[in-house]
Amino acid sequence: KNPLFKGFFDGYVFHFRTKHMKLSFLSLLSCRARSVFSLAGGVAGGLMVILVFSACSGRNERSRSAYTEAVKALINDDTAKSLELFEKSLDLAPSGNGRAARIYNFMGVARWKSGDRVGAREAFEQSRGLNPMFSAPFYNLGLMDYLADNMEDAVSMFSRAAMNDAHDLRSRDMLARIYRKDGRLDEAERVLQEALKAEPGSAMILTSMGLVALQKGDIDEAVELMRRALEKEPSYPPAAFNLGMIYMRRKDEPVLALKYF
Predict the structure, then answer these.
(1) By the 8 A CB rule, do 73 and 81 touch?
(2) Short-list 129, 141, 122, 133, CA closest to 42
(3) Handedness of CA 203, 236, 163, 36 (dihedral sign)
(4) Which of 185, 139, 117, 186 shows the shortest CA–CA distance to 39?
(5) What pLDDT is attached to residue 30?
(6) What pTM did the predictor assign?
(7) Tens-digit pLDDT profile for the chain (261 aa)?
(8) Phi/psi of residue 70, each to 5°?
(9) What is the Cα–Cα distance from 66 to 166, expressed in whole angstroms?
(10) pLDDT tens per residue across span 124-160
(11) Quick one: which of 219, 203, 139, 212 has its CA closest to 181?
């Protein structure tokens, strides 16, 4: 179910590896300080999860500590330990503190990694039910629907995630991918233009726009967009690979193509 290298690389890798994560911590200076954990990676590869905690004393502090250890366990692929610690964090957390939706979302990631697809979906559903404005579970459910070839449901979930978060590039990129596969190129371009307004320097979005241009037959525009993507992020593999493929297959310049592989 890994849609890689079918023709041109779509720029979306479905895996979950530490090198694809960005885990950042804000200071925990006092009981009122907030710690923000941002994890980019996810269900088979592209989850973006933002988890916010209030660090307080007593049970809430122990809950936060259990959560921190759960994140570390998940990064280290110890899903059993991470699930145990996420459950502990939930048990310790006072009700109504807004933490549960984010923990359930992360538990969905852990269950997915352990092969429990049903459990993963249940956790994501719980997460979105607890906080309908939290975009991550909608994105994750959309990705599960996409992998199951349920495109109508996937569009619904990705659209909701994008509506919840103006800077959610991955959901818009996935919407564009679905529209491209369906030949709805104008809709794909519209979604990507929205994303580019939010993040003008996104190599991912520029690459996807290049794929739309390529599908429309505008090779020169595709090359320009891929080059712009590499200017923004020189080590971005999808842009380099697709540019190399364009030079090899469309422009018949194999020597130049090798520069990008």
Answers:
(1) yes
(2) 141
(3) negative
(4) 139
(5) 27
(6) 0.76
(7) 333 222 333 333 322 233 333 332 222 222 222 222 233 334 433 343 433 334 445 778 888 899 999 989 998 999 999 999 999 999 887 665 567 898 999 999 999 999 999 999 999 999 999 999 999 999 999 999 999 999 999 999 999 999 999 999 999 999 999 999 999 999 999 999 999 999 999 999 999 999 999 999 999 999 999 999 999 999 899 999 999 999 999 998 988 888 888
(8) -65, -40
(9) 31
(10) 999 999 999 999 999 999 999 999 999 999 999 999 9
(11) 212
CA distance linking residue 72 with residue 69, whole number of Å: 5
Q: Which among 169, 180, 254, 238 is positioned nearest to 4, based on CA atoms?
A: 238
Q: Is 50 left (phi over 0), alpha (psi -120 to 50) or beta?
A: beta
Task: Report which secondary-structure segment, H or E, holds 51.
Answer: strand 47-54
Tokens of 94: 């006072």
Using the structure block, give the residue that is written with the tokens 């619904």: 156
Q: Are 47 and 17 in contact (CB under 8 A)?
A: no
For helices 135-147 and 151-164, give the axis angle rounded to 10 degrees: 160
What six digits make up the tokens of 152? 């109508």
H or E element: which one contains 40? Answer: strand 34-41
Copy the structure tokens of residue 180. Answer: 């491209």
Tokens of 186: 């104008």
DSSP 25: -
Nearest to 108 by CA among 146, 141, 156, 59: 141
Q: Report residue 222 as tokens.
A: 């595709």
Instruction: Using the Cα atoms of residue 75, residue 77, residue 80 and residue 81 in order, give the sign of their dihedral.
Output: negative
